[in-house]
Specification:
Order of helices and strands: HHEHEHEHEEEHEEHEEEE
Distance between the termini: 71 Å
CATH superfamily of the largest domain: NagB/RpiA/CoA transferase-like
Number of strands: 12
Radius of gyration: 22 Å
Structural class: alpha/beta
Largest sheet: 6 strands, parallel
Shape: globular
CATH architecture of the largest domain: 3-Layer(aba) Sandwich
CATH topology of the largest domain: Rossmann fold
Strand order of the largest sheet: 1-12-7-4-2-3
């Protein structure tokens, strides 16, 4: 048997089946969409507005051992700067070129130093692991029902920023929140081009591998702070 001919025959069969497969996938998508839509309609208390989603997100994060609070776009940098100083944070890893990072750098108190991730990890691994107290990231979006942050790491804010420091601080905008994972995937069109490194974070790092005792910080940050920016004056109290 000629291998090339066998390959061509196999590819031909796959191409011939493609229309049916596409049709089946579309039908499956429609069934999934209908299932979740029915669930949302049945849940009369399902949050819908950005403020309602922010409140649900805050409650879910609190249940996951994270600190979360709502703040206006004008107020959050000063609020976070005060909390960082009070917590004894001295070295904060962030992207100073981003709008949120620049706003935070401007608000920081003197004891806190902002550090950019501008070197290969091999050049400063010891410094990163031993001296950086916290990392600040801006979430792409969030899932209110489970208190989950959706992060899309890039060169300026790689996964290391949210993984290595003992305190991870994330900012998420209320108008980017989704009620559930299905809504997030549909609204952001993940099927059309999901980022290669999309990270879902629900609370600080935790494990119960050892004697089934829950411990925090074994594989990542011990603490997670989340600022939910409402882009309005309606804010919740810090917790």
């Amino acid at each position: 048997m000629n291998p090339l001919n066998a390959r061509e025959r196999m590819l031909g069969r796959l191409r011939a089946a493609a229309p049916a497969a596409t049709s089946d996938a579309s039908m499956l998508d429609a069934r999934i969409d209908a299932h979740y839509q029915a669930r949302r309609e049945a849940a009369s208390a399902m949050p819908a507005t950005p403020i309602e989603l922010a409140q649900a997100m805050q409650a879910a994060l609190g249940a996951s051992h994270a600190q979360a609070w709502c703040a206006s776009a004008d107020a959050w940098p000063a609020q976070l700067a005060d909390k960082l100083a009070a917590a004894g944070v001295r070295r904060l890893l962030l992207d100073p070129a981003g709008a949120e990072g620049a706003a935070l750098v401007h608000a920081l108190h003197a004891p806190v130093t902002a550090i950019a991730y501008d070197r290969p990890i091999e050049a400063w691994k010891s410094e990163l692991f031993d001296t950086v107290d916290a990392g600040f990231t801006v979430a792409r979006s969030g899932i209110a029902g489970t208190g989950t942050l959706i992060l899309a790491p890039d060169a300026q804010t790689p996964r290391t920023v949210s993984l290595v420091p003992p305190l991870h601080i994330a900012l998420v905008y209320a108008d980017t929140l989704h009620p559930d994972l299905h809504a997030a995937a549909r609204a952001e069109r993940w099927s059309a081009g999901m980022p290669t490194n999309l990270v879902l974070v629900s609370g600080p790092s935790k494990t119960s591998d050892i004697q089934q005792t829950l411990a925090y910080g074994a594989h990542g940050p011990r603490e997670l702070w989340v600022i939910i920016v409402t882009r309005s004056d309606a804010t919740g109290a810090a917790q």
